[in-house]
Amino acid sequence: MADDLSIRDRTDGATNHPALGSVPTPESEPVAVADDPTATDDPPAGGGPAAAGGGPAEQPVDEATIRLLAEIEGDRPVPPGPAPRSTLDREEQQIKDEVLRMGGLVEEAIRRAGRALEAHDAEAALAVIRDDAAVNEAQRTITRLIVATIATQQPVARDLRYLLTLDHVAYELERMGDHAASVAKQVIKLAPEPPLQRYVHLPEMAERAANLVHGVLRALVDQDAERARTVATEDDEIDHLYHATFDEVVELMRRDPANVERGTRIIIASHYLERIGDRATNIAEDIVYLVSVQVEDLNP
């Protein structure tokens, strides 16, 4: 009986041990806890409240977490990615190429309208009018590309100015294409009639206007402000030819009322060619602003 009591006393002491917690043990089946090799009276390492009170053991950190922390702290090099400007540079180049292609269409349309005038070729003039649709579509494409680039690449400073400049250049080129088509419409009306004083200065104006477009696009490619200023001064000669054409045609109409219809159409065509020169000057001003961030009036 004494042996049984001593066993129960030892068992009760074990079940209330801080490290083991309270484990009920039936009296009919005494447990010899002292024989358990894992039992110990020493507190767990760390001695914190959770360890002393039987709280959950500390969980090991998995290897993936260790790697992630090492990368964040810079202990391990992060593999190099693509250059951050590569996409923006590529899209800017694509937009510039589209603008230059559009400019080539406009320049050729002006030259074709002038040749159709000299040749009395109504069919060639009609082709210029039809092909203006390609110029319009080119502008829509450029606008879509610019909007997408600004939205996805979020350019700032010079890059943003460059994209906005290209957008305005495309707008001006589209209007030049319309002017070339308007010249062609007058050519269709003039073609069946004999030329009035060899169309005065219209052929020369058309050639100069086409050269002006070519020169300002070259300045855009090179981002050359000085060249842009030089191109703008060449518009003065187109203005001079326009005023000379107006004065001479008005005098011809005064002399002979039969010249009124042809003279009116020549004045209208010369006005459209003069507007092409003005729009080329607008592009030159955009180039100057792009390069120098200075607003200059190149057509005072």
Q: Please, could you describe this protein's structure?
A:
The protein has a domain at 86-292: Methane Monooxygenase Hydroxylase, Chain G, domain 1 (Up-down Bundle). The protein is mostly helical. The chain has nine helices and no strands. The protein starts with a helix and ends in an 8-residue tail after the last helix. Residues 1-40 and 43-52 have low confidence and may be disordered. Helix 4 runs antiparallel to helix 7 (202-222), helix 7 packs antiparallel against helix 8 (225-255) and helix 8 runs antiparallel to helix 9 (260-292).
CATH superfamily grouping of the domain at 86-292: Phosphate transport system protein phou homolog 2, domain 2
Mean pLDDT: 83
Structural class, by secondary structure, is: mainly alpha
Query: How would you name the oligomeric state of the polypeptide chains in this document?
Result: single chain
Basic shape? elongated
